[in-house]
Amino acid sequence: MNILICPDKFKGSLTAEAAARAMSRGVRRALPHADINVQPLADGGEGSLALLARRPGMKRRRLTVAGPLRRPLDAEYLLGNGRAVIESATACGLHLVPGPRRDPRNTTTVGVGTLIDDALARGATDITLLLGGSSTSDCGAGMAAALGYRFISKQGYDFVPMADSLKFVDRIITEGRHPGLAKATITALCDVDNPLLGPEGATYTYARQKGATDDDLPTLESNQAHFADCIADQLKVDVRHLKGAGAAGGLGAGAVAFLGARLESGVDGLFAAVGFEKLARHADLILTGEGKIDSQTLHGKVVAGVLRHHRPTVAVCGTSELSASELGAEAILALDRKGVSKEESMLRAAELLEETVYDYLANRHGKVGGDDTTPRT
């Protein structure tokens, strides 16, 4: 039996690599003679850089940038042979902001722009930007400011907008734009396919998990809509309903408007980079997973990407808001067992992941099915 193990990260507890190792241990205990292939996955968000770090000729470059709270932090990207791979989450990721300070109204993508500036200065002309896992909702305004764009209010003030101040942008000055952008080909791999605006857009789908309250949402949406209108009127680029523009708090929209980037599915791009189609084709069973399975999973996340390959698939997660039939999997195995708190589940994630996979496969003898959202024990 050929089993492919290919999870995404379990946010806040396990990297994709650590999750894959735990799942592999469970498989080996239950089915000691199975052929196991392990391929950690990512969708463009946090952890995607590690997936591409083994590309020939690419080396890690580290520098100090402004983090999402404008404090200095060390970030890195991949550089080599005129190419660069930049993961936005290394400079503006949600994991960089302590829980009590999470507030997308007042975080910035300036550090992402600094990484791009450094890559251009070092001769990169082919840049892949990985979008996802951000703490921000500034539509890439901070990134653009770091690359020479200027934003002017009606009162004539020159400022770097954050989500809470996008509404004050009156003019976008492009004269100081980094000249290297005109010579570079930039591809943005998005971890989701949501548009910028609307009920399925950046604000109403993702801002809460970044620390926004329900009362914040109408203002955030209005601010982003105003900024998108300015972009459309002055830069002649309409990003308002572009698929993927809502990725990373509107950084997808900013990548198109300010970098001339092409938006692509992060899952498609990263799956292609690791040869996932071939791996899936030879699998009798696929084990994938992520921290939480919910409606967001269906918008371009790893689990949804795996299921598109139409192989027998079991999804393992910390918790699930969907049934297996809603997801399209043969089974969902959730770690949040009765009597185990979320905090304990996260602390014991590797152990629980191994045991859940072992229990399921041992009890089913390798046969999957049903509509369960909890592991069989």
Automatic annotation (TrEMBL):
Q: Does the keyword Disulfide bond apply?
A: no
**Which UniProt keywords are present, listed alphabetically?**
Kinase, Transferase
Keyword NADP annotated: no
Q: Name one GO molecular function term.
A: glycerate kinase activity
Q: Which residues cross the membrane?
A: none
Q: Could you tell me which InterPro entries the record lists for this protein?
A: Glyc_kinase_flavodox-like_fold, Glycerate_kinase, Glycerate_kinase_RE-like, Glycerate_kinase_sf
Q: Name one GO biological process term.
A: organic acid phosphorylation
Taxonomically, the superkingdom here is Bacteria
PANTHER family recorded: GLYCERATE KINASE
Q: Which family does it belong to?
A: Belongs to the glycerate kinase type-1 family.
The protein here is known as Glycerate kinase
